[in-house]
Amino acid sequence: MKKIESCTAELVKAIQESSEYQEFCRVRDEVAKDPQKRERINQFRRHIFEVQNTKESVDMYEEMERLGREYEDFRRDAQVDAFLRSELRVCRVLQKVTTEIAQSVELDTQDVTRGLDL
Fold first, then answer.
1. CA atoms within 13 A on the CB side of 42
2. Are 24 and 86 in contact (CB under 8 A)?
3. Are 41 and 31 in contact (CB under 8 A)?
4. What is the pLDDT of residue 91?
5. pLDDT truncated to tens, each residue of the chain (118 aa)?
6. What are the residue ranges of helices labelled H in 1-118?
7. Pick from 37, 39, 32, 21: which is nearest to 91 by CA?
8. How far apart are alpha carbons 113 and 95 in whole angstroms?
9. How far is CA 22 from the centre of its chain?
10. Is residue 89 within 8 Å of residue 24, measured between CB atoms?
11. How far apart are CA 111 and CA 74, in angstroms?
């Protein structure tokens, strides 16, 4: 377990030192100087999160299109766009890491998840 903890700490450090994360932090700190803009960004992010995690039956494509139209003018702001793009790049880095781990560690769950809508 100590080796896993050590490697985890190294991975976290590598992510924090990555150009993707550094850029995100820079843009995040710039946006933080404008509390109204920061709140509007968070409102947009909250809406996206709610759509992606709803238990209700919704047309995901239609709902994302609606949000895109609703926030279209707002997203034209260069600072907003930079924040959202940099956040997405960091999320993709994290997603790639977790996908690689999940695909490499066999937990033999096929029988458990058979028939589930995952």
1. 9
2. yes
3. yes
4. 97
5. 999 999 999 999 999 999 999 999 999 999 999 999 999 999 999 988 888 887 777 777 888 888 888 888 988 999 999 999 999 999 999 999 999 999 899 888 777 778 776 6
6. 2-17, 19-32, 35-52, 60-70, 72-75, 78-104, 110-113
7. 21
8. 21
9. 15
10. yes
11. 47
- Exposure class string for 36-45: b at 16+ Cβ within 10 A, else e: ebbebbeebe
Instruction: Fill in the amino acid letter for 25.
Output: C
Query: With the C-alpha atoms ordered 24, 30, 35, 40, is the resulting torsion angle positive or negative?
Result: negative
Asked if 42 contacts 61 with a C-beta cutoff of 8 angstroms, the reply is no
The set of residues, in sequence order, having a beta carbon less than 8 Å from that of 27 and lying 6+ positions away, is 79, 82, 83, 86
- Position 98, amino acid: T
Rounded Cα distance, 66 and 72, in Å? 10
Tokens 């404008």 found at: 34
